[in-house]
Amino acid sequence: MSISALHSGELDRYDEALKLLKGQRRQARPDTAPSREAGTNEMPEAPTFKGTPSLFNMKIWLHALGYSDADLDRLNVIHVAGTKGKGSTCAFTRSFLEAHGHRTGYPGKVGLYTSPHLKVVQERIQINSQPVQKDLFARYVFEVWSQLDSKELPKPRYLQLLMLVAVHTFIREDVDVAICETHNGGEYDATNIFAHPIATGIATLGMDHVLQLGPTIEKIAWHKSGIFKSGTPAFSTSQGHQAATVLRRRAKEKNVSLDFVDDDTVDNSDVLAMKTTVQRRNASLAQRLANAFLVRKGPTSSHMLTPHDIREGAEHLNWNGRFQQIIHGNHRWFLDGAHNEMSVPYPAQWFAEIITKDLGHLGPVPRVLLFSHISERDGAVILRTIAKTLRENDISVDHLIISTYKERLDGGCMKSNSRPFPEALQQHYIQAWREYQPDAEVSVELTVEGALGLARAADRGAGMHTLITGSLYLVGSALRLLESA
């Protein structure tokens, strides 16, 4: 067989794997209460979420794949939950441990499972900061699927299947440590399969995914702290009083040592990845998680992160779509996938700080906001929060461009099941924006490709600065288009 034919076969197999995964997506969120068989009777009150929890059947599927709790223990898992910053915390933990590995030789292989992906699905399963290669990803998807398909078992849904593939990949590739980000919850999350993780972490908690986890911050904290395991140290960023009280109670119930981490114990604010307070908070939690692993598993008792490890890890942080800049000549794109009311002020502050302090010498340059958010959340509230934050930082925007998740002018779309965006909703967004930024030009462009074109057109010769935020789907599409430009 020729090299080109082999390459074509590998691509076909990868496309088949993507098709298989897509077929396991549920078409809509469930609207029925979970059954007792789903294992929700441990909740202190009746569960507010609907349908069967994603943890249900995960152990059965793992055993069908031949994996025991002892096999999972050997992955040395660092498990992280939270509302805002859990993905960044995982990325910092990975980066710090890789820097330590470069200096000392351990760990040699660092696995990361995270979600969602921005550009390609195998971004969710990484080893040493690289997504699993297409051929390997396809092979492991089909190895898992064929094993389950040969037995009379219910089939896993999309996220359940990806988690099973991640475990299979990390075991087959013999990683030294696996950093695992939960999906939305904790207690009943498909990732909550580890009986003895090395450490658990809780990033900042807030009111998001309330239909599944809420409707109160106490219930959200209850779900998130479900990843606590007896005998495993737990760490958390500082939390509000109500959430912290629940975390402490759950830790006591589970015989867990819980330590709240100071927000700014890692101070490398001159490094791009740590320019913002929220990222330094996430990095501080990551430092504690990484050191907990090194204390337990490092070859010698002296294995701990050094200031050099932390700085190198921060400088080489690979976390696309979070406080990311792309520079094309005098066009600067600022991208962050923040997508709820509590997270969007941070990219707005970051944008304001950079264009006033770092780029102020360039003189007046058109400022553009490219925004999209279409979900069960109130996108107008999110957009209003961005507008308010920018005004509080003395930043006026010349042009607001509202878009959808449709990526290309030819109809290509990253999120195939995106919701409709009727004119009434568009007007609702525009009115919310004009409460704080009434003088900006406003456009609605239904494709991300077209919206990027409108942003470029704002350049009158001096360049332009564009903040892209509101949705990870928007940022993922923008990244693919900008990187191919």
Layout of secondary structure:
Blueprint: H1 3-23, H2 58-64, H3 69-73, E1 77-81, H4 86-104, E2 110-113, E3 125-127, E4 130-131, H5 134-149, H6 158-172, E5 177-181, E6 199-202, H7 210-213, H8 217-224, E7 234-237, H9 241-253, E8 258-261, H10 277-297, H11 307-315, E9 324-328, E10 331-336, H12 345-358, E11 367-371, H13 379-392, E12 399-402, H14 423-434, E13 441-444, H15 448-457, E14 464-469, H16 472-483
Parallel strand pairs: 1-5, 1-6, 2-5, 6-7, 7-8, 10-14, 11-12, 11-14, 12-13
Antiparallel strand pairs: 2-3, 3-4, 9-10
Helix pairs in contact: 1-5, 4-10, 4-11, 5-6, 8-9, 12-13, 13-14
Can you characterise this structure?
Residues 1-6 have low confidence and may be disordered. This protein has helices at residues 3-23, 58-64, 69-73, 86-104, 134-149, 158-172, 210-213, 217-224, 241-253, 277-297, 307-315, 345-358, 379-392, 423-434, 448-457, 472-483, and strands at 77-81, 110-113, 125-127, 130-131, 177-181, 199-202, 234-237, 258-261, 324-328, 331-336, 367-371, 399-402, 441-444, 464-469. It has an 8-stranded mixed β-sheet with strand order 4-3-2-5-1-6-7-8, sandwiched between helices. A 6-stranded mixed β-sheet has the order 9-10-14-11-12-13, sandwiched between helices. Helix 8 (217-224) packs parallel to helix 9 (241-253) and helix 13 (379-392) packs parallel to helix 14. Helix 9 (241-253) links the parallel strand 7 and strand 8. The chain is α/β, with parallel strands linked by helices and 485 residues long.
